[in-house]
Amino acid sequence: MNELPLLTSINGKVTPSEDAMLPLPDDGLLRGDGAFEVMRVYGGRPFAMAEHLDRMERSAAAIELAFDRPALEREVRELLSRLDRPDCLLRLVCTRSGRRLVMTEPLIEHPPTVSLATVTYSPTNILNRVKSLSYAANMQATRMAKAAGTDEALLVRPDGIVLEAPTSTLFWVSPAGNLRTTEVEAGVLDSITRAKIIDRTEVETGEFPLADVLGASEAFLASTTREVQAVSSVDGQEIPTGPSPRTIESAHAFAAALEDDLD
Ligand SMILES: Cc1ncc(COP(=O)(O)O)c(C=O)c1O
Questions:
Q1: What is the 8-class DSSP label of residue 260?
Q2: Which class would CATH give 113-261?
Q3: What is the pLDDT at residue 1?
């Protein structure tokens, strides 16, 4: 396949990403004050674009950020029209100073399984469910998990309730055999991949303790960039990775959503 052109649109003006310039001051950069989304594009067609724009609109409203949805949507389509049916990511950013960014990014290659280390994390009430530009804590959690010799972090509340990974949702099959994931109200992102799986399979949502995950017979991470990725261990406690019927069923559920929701 041809190499993906790395392009950025800033308020509709498209340049190679390495030449893209943002005037300062902009609190989007200086204070992480803004909102973002990452969408996946399959063969030039964005997946679940309406849901991503809906969530961005909710994030923007939650932090009183101006959000010109029609302009952003136009700019996404204009950027995609310059590309040759790419498989890529599109990052959308709205900054406090009113700049809209749309950037092409290459897909991230994820291995088939992932090991997790727990990191204690308190969701901030104000930014709950908001995909704000203030993601430094999430990024640091991943570095802490890597320093502990694993691939990714599993965020756990100080009261022992399992949250999510820094950029993905955790699903697991409980010792009682139920496919579970944490409810949004517990302080996790309303993930679009999560919603697609919940819509098409039987999933129990709630607040569950870490012990439930440590005793799981299957677990997986779900996100725009990972789709469905099996979890092989949590804090060194192995989780079987195959054959994993509920993981396979969820991957099929996501594939069905893909058929339905490509633009
Ligand atoms: C904290 C967090 N949880 C979950 C997800 C997965 O969300 P989605 O399925 O919409 O990509 C993300 C996405 O980046 C995230 O940042």
A1: H
A2: alpha beta
A3: 55
Q: What is the pLDDT of residue 261?
A: 85
Choice from 163, 168, 261 to test ligand 1 binding pocket (greatest atom count within 8 A of CB):
168
- Stretch (H or E) spanning 182: strand 179-182
What DSSP state is assigned to residue 128?
T
For a substitution probing ligand 1, which of 38, 167, 198 has the most ligand atoms within 8 Å of its CB?
A: 167
DSSP 3-state of 34: strand
Q: Nearest C-alpha to atom 14 of ligand 1 is from which residue?
A: 167
Strand, helix or coil for residue 240: coil
Our answer on whether the CB atom of 223 is closer than 6 Å to any ligand 1 atom is yes
User: How many whole angstroms from 2 Cα to the centroid of ligand 1?
Assistant: 28
Fold of domain 7-105: D-amino Acid Aminotransferase; Chain A, domain 1 (3.30.470)
169 lines ligand 1 (CB under 6 A): yes
Low-confidence ranges of the chain (pLDDT < 70): 1-2
192 Cβ inside 6 Å of ligand 1: yes
Predicted pLDDT at 69: 98
- CA dihedral (39, 45, 50, 53) in degrees, to 10, reads 40
Residue-range domain boundaries for the chain:
7-105, 113-261
Report yes or no: 94 and 76 within 8 Å, Cβ to Cβ: no
Identify any residues that bridge with 46 across adjacent strands, giving them in sequence order. Answer: 41
> What digits encode the pLDDT tens for the residues 68-94?
999 999 999 999 999 999 999 999 999
Cα 213 from Cα 217, distance rounded (Å): 9
C-beta of 198 in contact with ligand 1 (< 6 A)? no
Closest ligand 1 atom to Cα of 193: 9
